[in-house]
Each structure stands twice: as structure tokens, then as C-alpha cells.
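Hi both,

Apologies for the delay on this - the queue was longer than expected. I finally got the pyridoxal-5'-phosphate-bound model through. Below you'll find the protein sequence and the ligand SMILES exactly as submitted, and right after that the C-alpha cells for the full complex including the ligand.
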Amino acid sequence: MQDTDRCIIHPEAELEGFHSLAVPVYRASTVVFPDAKAFAARAQRLPDGYTYGLHGTPTTRMLERSITQLQGGAWTFLTPSGQASCVFAMLAVLKPGDTVLISDSVYPPVRQFADTDLQRMNITVDYFDPLSLADLEARLTPRTRLVWCESPGSNTMEVMDLGAISDLAHRRSALVGCDNTWATPLYCKPLELGVDFVAEALTKFFGGHSDLLLGSLTLKDEALILPVRDLMGRYGVGVSPDDAALVLRGMETMPLRLHHASAVALRLAQHLERHPLVARVLHPALPKAPGHEIWLRDFKGASPLFSAEFTPKATPFLGEALTGLQTFTIGASWGGTRSLLAPQPIAGTRTARPWQGAHQILRFSIGLESEAALQQDIDAFLARLQLAMDAHKP
Ligand SMILES: *Cc1c(COP(=O)(O)O)cnc(C)c1O
């Protein structure tokens, strides 16, 4: 062999005798075959054989299987983001002329996708009250193909009765999908409650370190595996094995991270609830939270993400009081090691269940910093809020 070829055609290294606890990262576009016959028959290797990097590598397959087992499903697809997992769930089952019913407190970018792209495909989009089965029932029509849930809802945290919703939808021949990012399959398993497919933003707790974007879509029914795989292939959607490996690493500590941050978050939420400038704390584990009884019945825990609504007099000064944070930082996304605060506008994003509360709420994502530092930062923030209000008194 010439040196120039030696640079290109590497000797194989032994795998035998090498046992590591680390997740191997297999990168590939091309996958090679022993002969022309095997190459010609490569499509028959689907769904779980290897054909092309876009359709999976041992690293992405490992993560897919791990999530499938956690969810109790038939198959999992990885997507480039949590948003993409919601989008592909909808694209996989909806066709022109269908109606999709979406929970009113859905992740706002999903609403934007539905209102622009699904509408453009001649799919009717309607929203339902996440807390009212009667409202959902009234909106179901023979054209409803999909009911899309997110429990609890983004920012306002309404816990939905996924079992009853699934019964209702299935009786009308509609499928049910659910975004389960808040709970993760550790705290809720929507497929066991009757849902047909479940989306997760792995970007959040699974990854756990604010350094990647990835999503998953897990199916309960094997019949959807090939249609979804073909759809994702046609759209050219694949994920990096490096990101999949980071999620596999992140999820090893997910149970401990969640357990710890959730306990701290609940205590901080209770602390906030007692403050006179706080009108309500929206945290599913608090008895006054919307859907708390359902949370008690269907969930094994509460994740460390919750929101607080402040009094009408305090709300206009939230932005000002957020200057000077020591431990929290301001930012979107969540589920990482750092605690985040995000002021979120609500009113403009609700149509089926008009928002009665403050025009803006504050979302708390509790990370892994010490509870004392977090509590001190919250107290200092509340003190600044009071000072800002006093300074603006006529
Ligand atoms: C963040 C989030 C998503 C989107 O995840 P990305 O990976 O950031 O696209 C979807 N649903 C919920 C509930 C989320 O919080």
C-alpha cells in the first residue's frame, strides 16, 4: 500500500477486550455493505438496521432505546430540538382537511407553527381549554385527527387529565400527542395514561447542562414507525451522535438532579407564596395550583420549573427588580445546572381560556446552586421590587 493510501485507509482497531463505561460516539454519513446484494437490500434493514447516517448510528439508537424503555413505548425518534419533535408528530398524522385541537397553554412556538404552517397546509387549527373536558368535547368534530396536549402547560402550569382526554379523543377516532418536557418520563408516563405519542425536549433535563439541542418523539403504536421514519428522512432530519452521547451522559444524573432541584424548588415556591407582593405561585405540587388533584394522581414528582404571578401594583416593576441578581441569571430554556428567571408575557398567547391574571409572570427554573444562595437572591429581588414600587409612588 502506498503512503498516500495509508493516510486514507486506516487499519481496524480491535474492539475485543475493550470494555468501557463511556458511551461510544459513532459518526457516520456513509454506512458500507459487504456486497452489492446487501447494498441493494438495505431498505429491508429498516427500521432498526443501519442504512445511512441520517437514519441512525449505534449512538443515536442507544439513546432512542433508552428513552423508549423509560416511556414504555414501541419506538423513539430523535429530532434536532424539542420543537422539532412536536412539529414532526403533527406533520406525521395531519393531512389537508384535518383539524388539530391544541391545548391553549401549549409551548408558544408550537402555536406559531400551527397558526402559520399547518394553516397554510389547509389544516384547521383550534385551541381548547386545558382544564375543561367539556370544552374539548364541544370542539371535537369528525374531522379532528389529533388532540395535542402539554401537561402542565407552558408558563401557566395547568395540569391536564391525559387519561380522560385520551378516552374522549379515541372515542371520536382522534389521536392524542403530549409534550412531556416538564415532567420527563421519570415523573409522568403519558403513554401509560392513554396518549399515542409523547414528545420531550431533551435540551432540558435530559441534557441537563444547557449545552445542546435535541428532542425525542416516542410512539406507542408500531404502525406509525415506518411512516414517521420516512417522513423524517424526506425532510432530511437527523441528529449528531455527539449530541446524543451528551444526552446519554446527562441522563445518567437526571434522577438525582431532578430529585434535588425539585425539593429545593418546592420550598422556594412555598416561600414565595407567603410574600405579600406575590399574588399566586403556579406550581403543580401546591394545593391551589390548577389541576393539582390530577398532578397528585398521575405524577410521581414535580419538576423544578414553576411560575409566580405578582400583585397588579408590583407587576410593572418586575423588570427593574431583575437587575442585580447574584445567583439566578435571566434566560429562556431551562433544565440545566444554573437557575434562571424569565419574565413571560401571557395574555396575548391565550385564546380558548382567556388569561385573567397579570400581563406578565415570572418563570423560575431552579438549578443546582445552594438553596441558601437562591433564597437570598429571591429575597433581595423581592426587596428591590418593593423599593422600586415605593420610588414610583406619587
Ligand atoms: C423548551 C421546550 C420545548 C422546545 O425544546 P427545544 O429543544 O428548545 O426546541 C418544547 N416544549 C416545551 C414544553 C419546552 O419547554
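Main takeaway for now: The first helix runs from residue 3 to 6.

I'll put the files on the shared drive as well.

H.
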